[in-house]
Structures are given as structure tokens and as C-alpha cells.
Amino acid sequence: MPVPNNNAAFARKGSNVQKVPGAKSTKAATKKKDEEEAVETGTGWEEWSQGKALVRPPDQMELTEAELKEENTRILTANNPHAPQNIVRYSFKERSYKPINIVDQMAVHFVLEGSLVHQDSEEFDLRYKYLFAGFPQVNPAVDGGDVEEAGDEDRPDSAASRINKKEPKVTNQFNFSDRASQTLNNPMRDRICQTEPPPRSSFSATANQWEIYDAYVQELQKQEKNKEKQKGTHSHKDNGKSKKVMPMETQSEDVTKWTMASKILERTISQNTFDDIAQDFKYFEDASDEFREQEGTLLPLWKFQYDKAKTLSVTALCWNNKYQDLFAVGLGSYDFSRQGCGMLLFYSLKNPAFPEYIYPTSSGVMCLDIHVQYFHLVAVGFYNGCVAVYSLKEEGREPVYKSTAKTGKHTDPVWQVHWQSDDMDSNHNFYSVSSDGRVVSWTLVKNELVFTDIIRLTLTGAVSEGPKGAQAPTSGTSFDFHKQIDYMFLVGTEEGKIHKCSKTYSSQFLETYDAHSMAVDTVKWNYFHPKVFVSCSSDWTVKIWDHTINTPMFVFDLQAAVGDVAWSPYSSTVFAAVTTDGTVHVFDLNVNKYEAICQQLVVDKKKTKLTHVEFNPIHPVIIVGDDRGYVTSFKLSPNLRKKPKVRVLTSLPAWFYLLRIKKDKTVFLNL
């Protein structure tokens, strides 16, 4: 087989190379060498020219012509696949966690900041002068070299002169590399504590010579009195040993100096200790109420306890209308076989650790009431039949007014007291009801209590007009005055009846309701509706009444003895009740007329019984007392404090007439 001649190919290949002068002598030798190589390679041409079969692996997939022509495209996007898509942050404006839609998609793989400076720039001149200012300049004339004429390139300020000059080599000035690494930065945290600012007062006075002299004289007189008292105390000796007694004046002066400061410090420490509860009280809202249309919950807040009152029961609760964080607690005992001392305590939501005021009593406290206008006056009823008035402005632990046997005190426990508006002579007065069947008005006159019997309760249902004891009296257990009509009030009895009475017409009852089968524990008028009142009893029932109808409008069976019931101050249809099984029931007649919208167990069912409940006048908070002396506060969820919508009737056609019937039901007649 003839060997193919590749000289032409090599010739064409060589023709593309540019001809270099002087290369003719080597051209013949190169041509001869190429021919020899072509002859040597021609021996394997036969094997190379044969067709080669494609070797296909046995597991290779066979594709059709259409599948082979199909184009698979991939789209490259600028989105970072590793960037998180579920970042949420807390929004203080909306008070909830919100997702973040904008996510940074840039990923930095390498960053290198250069430090090169152009030699003609001003920055280079500044660095050059800074680095080489202290080095000596090299003069070529001194070294024996020839001096050339100075031209434009040899000027000291030109760039060419800088390049030609032999500059000393400074290591590690521009010849270095930057290395960077990414580290995790610790997140910043803000911690905030809320405290009440201390009270401030402006004081200004002028100091003269005579004022300074009088102050020194008063101080000398006090010191002389203290010395005389110390001499008198040392003269009294017991068994030959003298007792050192510190004067009371100096003790009181020392105590008053730091009493207020210690109270402020204690309140500050308490607020820092219970900061999480304070945050829940101000800002927490149960978000699950959005998914529960007709149900709500109670959030436990502070728990109030006094160590010396563990053996007593909570017998009364009352909020202060001016200072909404302050409330009074009456402590006594409902076990008549175990009667002893009682206690009157005042707590504040700002300091749940210890009471603000403590008043120990010789008899158990059964009821109390704070004056609506004069917030420092508190009326208290005791188990021994006495009533008393305490003043928070007065120092000491004794009441300002107290009834005695000479001034007409009750002969049985006092179950309810209520402040009323001042009389014609602007004297404060309050009313009380007791198990002896008397409803008494007490008037504060100078330094004594003046009593007036308003009405006497009897078993026959009529008021006794004859001498005392002519008719068998019945026990009064509770009463309440109408919110708008001053002379009208309701009285609950031990037989389960409720009497509607009047101050001005005391010869007989205005109305009698057969309410319960056991004693009426509580009866209260509605704050908004003038006809509606509520009552509860140990017969397990709570009843809603219209005082113009003898039968109840609503009856609720709570499956346990009911201790107390209270209307809410923000809605005419919401009320709460507590039972002896430790459950708090909250009703809203505007939402559900048949059952409670909240039934929550707040204490141990077997060991503790709830006795009283009371709504805060401003905040969505209730307080609950039990028979172990504890008072617990709860925050109402949004579903439990909804205000009813006010329906405003717009202009109606002439053929519509509005008709109002009993039970406050509104219907329209189409005439």
C-alpha cells in the first residue's frame, strides 16, 4: 500500500509561518527530517485507517431520536438557596411576631481589599515623605559618577526622577496581604426595668440669725427633756438592776426618717422580682380567643398572703375607687365553733409581698366597705355585732369610731355594711344588716356613732311595729342599695327570701321574692340597668331578677354551693360567681344565656373553698379570696371583657313603630 505523501500538508503548514531572514540554510535540513519522520509513521497507517466499532456498556439507557433532540434547559437565578425564608421578628407596634419578606440573597465568597497606590497621586507623595523622610539622599556626583545635565526627567518632583533614584528598600510596607475571616457576632440584648419615679417636692426657705437661734433653742430643750426622762427611768429598779429604756420620742423620730424610704425600696425590689407578672398584667392578651368565639380564660397574676392570717378565711373584699391598685381584705372565720381574732389588711398590686396597712381586731371581720368619696374611711362589721370605722390617715391600729352595747350595737354577726350619701347636716353615715333582723343606719357625729333602726325583719313577712320581741325576727344575711334610687334597697334573709324595702316607708315591705331554698349569700343591683339584680345562695343557684316581676328571668345551676357573685363594672351582661369547689364562673348574657363562657378551677378542689370575688373598677382584673386567707388576682381574656354593642336606631319609615314590652324585649310592628 503506498504511503501517503504528507509533504504537501507540512508545506502548507509551514507556509503560514513568517519567513525570518537567515533561515534558508536550515530549510533543507528541516525538509529532509520531515520526510524521514513521514516514512516511519507510514507503517501504522493501515491499522489507523480501519473503522473502529463503538463499545457500548450493557447498562446504558437507549434513547429515541425525539428524546435525543429534546433540550433540557436550566435557569440560573440570583436567589441564594441557603438563605432562610422563615425569619420572624417581634413588632412592638402590633405586639406580635411578624414574618420578614425581604431576605438578603447576596453571598460573599472572597473579599480582598487592595492597598496599591498610583505613583502620580497625592497619597503616594504623602506616604513617600512619611516613610522615607529620615533616609539620606544619594548624590551621584559625590560617588564619582558623571553629572548629566538636568532635564525635565531629572527634576526632583517628577515621576521619572523617583523611579531612577535608588531608594532604600523598606520591607513589609506595601508588600503584604490581608486575610479576613467571618465570625459569628453575638446578638445584642436590651434589658429594661420599669419603676415608678420617686416623688419630688420643691422646698425653699430663708435662713436668718433668729431662725438659726430658735432651731438651736428647740434642740436644746429636746435634749433636756430626754435627759430628765432618762433619769426617771434609771430611778426605777427591778431586783436591784436598772433597765435602760430609750425615750419614745427619739425612737419615733428615728423610725419616721427611713419609713418612707424603706417602703419605696421594698416596692422597687418587689416590682423587679415580679417583673414578668407585671408585663403580663400590662401587655399579655390571650391570642387563642380569636379561635374561640364564646369562651375565655383567666390568667393568674399575683397571689397575696400574710403569714399571720393563714388560719383565717377571706370574709370580705373591696376595691378603692380612687387608687385602683389598692384593695381591702377582711379576715375572719365562717366556722362559728372556732371564733377568735380577725384582721383588716390593705394590699396593693404594686407590692404583693406585704400588706400596705395592717389592723388586727379582737373579733373576726365579716364585712367591710370603702367610702366612695372619702377614700380613707372604711366601715367594718364584726362577728360580735359591733361596727367600726377606720381611717387610713390616722396613725395607730385602733378604729376612729366603734359601736358598743350602749350605742346600740347588733346582738348577732354583722353580714353587710354599705356607705350612703351624707345626711342633711353633712354627716357621714352607713347602713348595716345583721342576723338579729335589724337594718341600722349609723351616723358619724363628732366622736361617736349614732344609730337609727330603719327596719326590722320578721318571719311573717311584715315589719314589726309593736314592742321588741312581739314578732319572731328573721336573720338578714345581705343587702344592697339601688344605684340610682337612694331610698330603695334589697335585703336577703336566712330563709331564702329577698325583700324590697324603702327608707322612707318602713311599715311594710314593698315586695317579697321567694328566691332560694337556703340563705341568700349575696344580692346586688346591676350597675347599668335600673331594674335588674342578681342573687346567689348555697342551694347551688344564681338567679337574675327584674324587680317588677316576682319570678326570676334566668336561673343557673353551678353544681356547688355559691359563695359570692359580682357584676362587672364595664358591661351590663357580664358577672362572675365563685363556688366552694374552687371554680370561678364568668357569664356573659349577651353571648350565651344558658351557660358560663368561662369555668376555670383556680385552687385545689379538695382542700380549698372560694368565698368571695370582686371586679377591679378600671383594669380587666378580678380578685378571688378563699378560706385559707389567700387572695389571688386574675386577668380576664379579651372574650371575657367584651362590651356590648350599642344599637343606634336611625330614621325609620312612618309605618314602623317601636314597642317596648316587659323583660326589655324590643319588637317592631308593621302597620
From TrEMBL:
Residues 145-155 have a biased composition (Acidic residues). The keyword Cytoplasm applies. PROSITE patterns: WD_REPEATS_2, WD_REPEATS_REGION. Part of the dynein complex of respiratory cilia. Consists of at least two heavy chains and a number of intermediate and light chains. Interacts with BICD2. Interacts with CFAP45 and CFAP52. Interacts with CFAP53. PANTHER family: DYNEIN AXONEMAL INTERMEDIATE CHAIN 1, DYNEIN INTERMEDIATE CHAIN. This is Dynein axonemal intermediate chain 1. It comes from Oreochromis niloticus. The gene is DNAI1.
